[in-house]
């Protein structure tokens, strides 16, 4: 079954470059109105390209780890497009801490990583879900992950010591009728056990009523 995205309203975070940029362009080609946000100033150049697909688009330079930036952006999306159907939480940063870094640097790296990669997704989701509930037609939230944490037994860069093994559960589940998808995708090669291959991890969250 083919699902049409024409006329739907989407948000893509971290869309200035990379896969976020590609997601925004793909949604526009499918007929979605697309709002984008990024900390990079060149995010302002993207809407003009997206509008070539005959959709509406605008950009905001902002930081998804800051509640005031998130609220300002989401409010602008709602007032411009009239609603939000799709959120792609793609914004992410990699702050590298070595095992022998000082505490001040490690704490700064931690705050930067968690602020964007975790808090940013939370803030964006919390901002759009009430609007999806109010619209009464449901919505899609897709959280983009990374395979960078699969670092089993690799030497910590710059030292002779090895970093402790890190793993994360990889699973998919079938959605029952009473749930709607909140998906998490980890593009790129990853390891999820000896018999598992592929690039997407899916999880399900309580349904936004449709």
What does this protein look like?
The protein has a single domain, classed as NAD(P)-binding Rossmann-like Domain (Rossmann fold), CATH 3.40.50.720. It is built from 4 helices and 8 strands. The chain has helices spanning 18-29, 46-50, 67-81, 103-135; strands spanning 9-13, 33-38, 57-61, 86-89, 140-144, 179-185, 200-201, 204-206. Strands 1, 2, 3, 4, 5, 6, 7 and 8 form an 8-stranded mixed β-sheet that branches. Strand 1 (9-13), helix 1 and strand 2 form a beta-alpha-beta unit. It is globular, with a radius of gyration of 18 Å. The relative contact order is 0.13.
Distance between the termini: 19 Å
Number of helices: 4
Query: How would you describe the shape?
Result: globular
Return residue spans where pLDDT drops below 50 for at least 5 consecutive residues: 150-180, 189-210
How much of the sequence lies in strands comes to 15-25%
Q: How does CATH name the architecture?
A: 3-Layer(aba) Sandwich
User: Which oligomeric state applies?
Assistant: single chain
Overall average residue pLDDT: 78
**What is the β-strand count?**
8
Share of residues in helices = 25-40%
CATH class: Alpha Beta
**How many domains comprise the coordinates?**
1
Output the CATH homologous superfamily.
NAD(P)-binding Rossmann-like Domain
Helix/strand order, N-terminal first: EHEHEHEHEEEE
Supply Rg. Answer: 18 Å
Structural class: alpha/beta
**Could you please say which CATH topology applies here?**
Rossmann fold
Largest sheet: 8 strands, mixed
